[in-house]
Design a protein that fits this description.
about 300 residues, mainly alpha, two-stranded antiparallel ribbon, about 0% strand
């Protein structure tokens, strides 16, 4: 199966599961509508794809891994809703249409993000997802959810966001910017990679290599996003251009410039590909995925 077909296979699995799962929401209809609005707005689904690819590379069952892939995308969507709000980046466009708070108001958007964050762990840890045999599957489920929780909280995405909102061009250093992005952007990428291995029963060196791959891939994505924020076409990116400059936020582009950003992204991509050596031919898809991330600005 070639790269495109395999990516589509993973992404279609996630899309079908997300659509089917979110449509079963009961409770408060307006809140459910706000959650669906952002969760089903499209996107590359790259974080769940990474999780599923690592699970398969480690010989795991994709049906067992799928709830974790879906939960991860719910958490990512929560972060986008909150990141777009006036108290954060104050964006009015996401994925080519108005952001959640523009459509539903600030309060409902905040609750939609909270609802998706909580639903993620409900989906991941629902007992019916696993046929418990000697407790092994339950331990894997707990381990994978733990990896995702680490990538989400104070030691991951949320901690990085806290660093990000206190950053300005006046106090910027490349070291601080990288430390921020290793949490804010890389937290979920690394969690996706590690959780995919854990749910498949892998451990030790493979999980560590997967985590490093996720970190390197996440940094590449952030650098590429910084380039596109300056040079990208909003009709293609689906996002408002120039947001970082408007907020006086330091970026790789403001600190390194376009040429050095591209050179750094190429270096990170090569390092990510090298981490896949531990997976043999099972890492081929993930090597190519890292290259595709870079090609967005090549």
């Amino acid at each position: 199966m070639d790269y495109g077909a395999r990516y589509k296979r993973y992404a279609d699995m996630v899309e079908e599961a997300l659509t089917g799962g979110i449509e079963t929401l009961g409770g408060v209809s307006e809140l459910a509508g706000a959650m669906k609005y952002s969760l089903l707005a499209g996107g590359k689904r790259i974080r769940p794809v990474v999780l599923l690819a690592f699970a398969e590379a480690c010989g795991g069952n994709l049906e067992h891994a799928l709830p974790f892939a879906c939960g991860l995308e719910m958490i990512h969507t929560c972060s986008l809703i909150h990141d777009d709000m006036p108290c954060m980046d104050d964006d009015d466009m996401r994925r080519g249409r108005p952001t959640n708070h523009i459509v539903y108001g600030d309060a409902m958007a905040l609750l939609a993000g909270d609802g998706l964050l909580t639903l993620a762990f409900e989906v991941m840890l629902e007992p019916g997802h696993f046929k418990l045999k000697g407790g092994a599957d339950a331990r894997r489920a707990a381990g994978a959810a733990y990896q995702i929780a680490l990538g989400t909280g104070e030691r991951g995405m949320t901690g990085g966001q806290a660093l990000d909102i206190t950053a300005s061009c006046e106090n910027a250093t490349i070291e601080r910017l990288t430390a921020t992005d290793e949490l804010k952007t890389c937290g979920l990428f690394s969690a996706a990679a590690r959780a995919g291995c854990v749910i498949a029963g892998a451990g030790g060196a493979l999980v560590d290599s997967a985590g490093r791959y996720g970190l390197l891939l996440g940094l590449t994505f952030q650098i590429v996003d910084d380039i596109l924020d300056v040079e990208g076409d909003p009709s293609v990116t689906g996002k408002t251009a120039g947001t970082d400059a408007k907020l006086n936020k330091p970026t790789y582009m403001s600190m390194l410039g376009s040429e050095r950003c591209r050179a750094r992204a190429r270096e990170l991509t090569e390092q990510a590909a090298n981490e896949m050596n531990a997976f043999g031919s099972g890492g081929d898809f993930l090597r190519e995925l890292a290259q595709k991330a870079l090609l967005r600005v090549q």
